[in-house]
Amino acid sequence: EKGWGGNHPQPVIAPIIMNLDPSAGGEIFLKSEMERATITWYELPEFERSSKNTIQLVLYKDGSFDISYIELNPDPRNRSLKIDVMTTANISGSVLGGRGNKGISFEPRLIGIHPGGRAAPLQPIRFLKDLPYSSTIPGAIFEAYDIDYYQYIHNRMMPLAFILLGSSIFILFFFPIILKNSLIKPLHVLYEGMEKVNRGDINITISPRFNDEIGFLTRSFNRMLHSIRKAEINFRTLAENAQDGIFIISE
C-alpha cells in the first residue's frame, strides 16, 4: 500500500499506477503454480469512469516477471491531473487529494518496481528496449510515460532557447557596436563638420558612411557647403569688379 516510499516503505511491483475500481465491474484473477503466479486485472474500470482495462502480471520463481497490457483505456480527461513521481510518494486506494476513501483516477504515468527503503534511487528505463536490466545497488526501476513528452518538449524548445540566447548575446554585445558605427559615428562626424563651418571653415567635405537617412543628410550638407562656396566666389567676383569700377570712375 505504501510501496513508493512513505513511512513504512515496502518492495513494490507496479504494472501500472492507476486507480481501478473492482466494485464497479470487471474481475481480478490469481492463478498460482509451482513455477509462477499469474495475476490478471480483467476489464476493470477506473474510479468514476466507464473505461475498461485489462492487465496481467506473471511472477516467476527466479524473481523475473512479465507484464502484459491487453486493454488499456485511460480516460483522456484525466490528462490534466499531475502526479509527481518521488521516492516518498504514497500510492494507495485513497490517493492524496481524492474524495472520501475511493481516491481519484489519473492518467497511467508510471510502471516499474521498487526495492523498498526511503533512500532507493530512481532509475528510469525503457521496458521495451532496456530489459533485461541489472544493478549492483537497490533502486526504483520505473518507466515514466511523461518522460517521452518532456523529451519531446525539450527537443522542440532547444532551438528556440539557442535563438533567444544568441539574440540576447547579440543585443548585449554586438548591437551597441553596430549602433555606434551606423548612427553615433556618422552623426558625430556631421556634428564636427557643422562646428568647423560655424568657425568659418567652409572648405570641407564630409564623406557619407552609409546610404541611409544620415547619409542623405550628409550629402545635403555637402551640397549646401558647395552652394555657399560658389555663392562666396560670385560675391567676391562682384565685389572685385565693383571695386575696379569705382577706381575707374574716380580716375
Automatic annotation (TrEMBL):
Statement: the UniProt record of this protein carries the keyword Disulfide bond: no
Matches recorded under Gene3D superfamilies: 6.10.340.10
GO terms under cellular component: membrane
The name this protein goes by in its record: HAMP domain-containing protein
Spans traversing the lipid bilayer: 160-179
Pfam families (alphabetical): HAMP
Taxonomic lineage of the native organism: unclassified sequences, metagenomes, ecological metagenomes
Keywords: Membrane, Transmembrane, Transmembrane helix
Stored SUPFAM superfamilies: HAMP domain-like (SSF158472)
One GO term of the biological process aspect: signal transduction
